[in-house]
Amino acid sequence: MGSGVHNKLIGQIGENLVAAKLGTLGYYASPYAGNVPGFDLTAVDSKTLSSFPIQVKCSTANTLVHSQIDRWIETNIDSTGKYSFGDLIQLEHPNMLWLMVNLPNGQIENARYFICRESDIQKLAVERFLAFIKRHDYRRPNGGNSKQAILTLKELGKYEDNWSLIAPASMTVTTHDGRESNDL
Fold it and tell me: DSSP string spanning 106-175?
């Protein structure tokens, strides 16, 4: 199977897993299958009918977020390949929820969930990219001027099972390791 098809299927699986998980938390959730720019599904509280969008990222690998660094911070690359940076990009929706799903070995029964806000993604992406590029004297190793930025399980680890951003305090949530908690 081609990598484009594989990635689309993994994305679809992630969106539907998130919708199912939100159902267990008392939310109606509907994925849009890539037809809405900026977010992947809408969640609606079954009691209050308040709704909110969620950006979903899903991967079978260690890297959960791929983006261009100039999405998060003003970035310039001069003719010698040296990077320089300006101000952080002002986000239109800094509080929008991002829910990343890791499917180790493509197995949904081992799905791991990482929940944070878009502003958290921005902070982590900028920190990771700046640390990387500084180590290389502000130039990409082996040349080039790629603006590719990533976030891995390591950077997102503190947001694993962070259901408190979504779940009402009175609800019990089952974490990826099978624990039940209402203190998430």
Answer: G-GGG-EEEEEEHHHHHHHHHHHHHHHHHHTTTB-TTS----EEEEEHHHHGGGBT-GGGTS-TTS-EE-
User: What gap in Å lies between CA 85 and CA 145, rounded to an integer?
Assistant: 14
Handedness of CA 106, 107, 112, 115 (dihedral sign): positive
Rounded to 10 degrees, the C-alpha dihedral 165/168/172/177 comes to -10
**Pair type for strands 51-59 and 97-102:** parallel
Among 47, 64, 172, which Cα is nearest to 115's?
64
Distances (CA, A) of 34 to 43, 56, 175: 16, 10, 27
Q: Cβ–Cβ contacts within 10 Å for residue 95, how many?
A: 11
DSSP letter (8 states) at residue 38:
T
pLDDT given for residue 1 in this prediction: 45
* Regions of the chain where pLDDT drops below 50: 1, 169-174, 181-184
